[in-house]
């Protein structure tokens, strides 16, 4: 899979995650929020809680190398946490309740992707 295919699949996975959360009643506040330290895939609100969502995707073939959620390294967790701190500071929400979730999207053969939601993932 080339770089453009990976980017397209990533956008597709983020859309699936956004649709999933919206169906659960979450409000999507930001998509692909960027700053110098990194990018937040989705920033959502669940009641009074700001939810920082890391979206990971894999094809069913790549699942042999682990689940999408297993692809999150300690370095990535630190980057997401650091970027979230910048977002919360810039938006004046440093005292907000914050949760870090992972949405893992696995693509099968021509079927709808499987979405796994891991609350309080890190």
The helix content, as a percent range, equals: 25-40%
Query: Count the strands?
Result: 5
Question: Oligomeric status of the shown chains?
Answer: single chain
Order of helices and strands: HEEEHEE
CATH class term? Alpha Beta
Number of domains: 1
Report Rg. 14 Å
Our estimate of the beta-strand percent is 35-45%
According to CATH, the fold-level topology is Trna Endonuclease, Chain: A, domain 1
Q: Whole-Å distance between the termini?
A: 29 Å
Number of H- or I-type helical stretches: 2
Write up what this structure looks like:
InterPro entries: Restrct_endonuc-II-like, tRNA_endonuc-like_dom_sf, UPF0102_YraN-like. Pfam families: UPF0102. This is UPF0102 protein EHV15_22275. One of its GO terms (molecular function) is nucleic acid binding. Belongs to the UPF0102 family. The chain contains two helices and five strands; from the N terminus they run αβββαββ. It has helices at residues 3-23, 74-90, and strands at 27-35, 38-46, 49-59, 97-107, 114-118. The model has no long low-confidence stretch (mean pLDDT 90). The protein has a single domain, classed as Trna Endonuclease, Chain: A, domain 1 (3-Layer(aba) Sandwich). The radius of gyration is 14 Å and the shape is globular. Helix 2 (74-90) links the parallel strand 3 (49-59) and strand 4 (97-107). The chain is of the alpha+beta class. Strands 1-2-3-4-5 form a five-stranded mixed sheet, sandwiched between helices.
């Amino acid at each position: 899979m080339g770089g453009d295919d990976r980017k397209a699949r990533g956008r597709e996975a983020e859309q699936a995650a956004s649709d999933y959360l919206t169906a659960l009643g979450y409000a999507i506040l930001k998509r692909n929020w960027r700053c110098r330290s990194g990018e937040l895939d989705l920033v959502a609100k669940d009641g009074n809680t700001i939810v920082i969502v890391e979206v990971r995707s894999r094809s069913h073939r790549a699942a042999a190398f682990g689940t999408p959620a297993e692809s999150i390294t300690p370095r990535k967790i630190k980057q997401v946490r650091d970027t979230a701190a910048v977002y919360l500071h810039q938006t004046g929400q440093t005292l907000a309740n914050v949760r870090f979730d992972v949405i893992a999207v696995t693509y099968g053969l021509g079927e709808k992707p499987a979405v796994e939601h891991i609350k309080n993932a890190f």
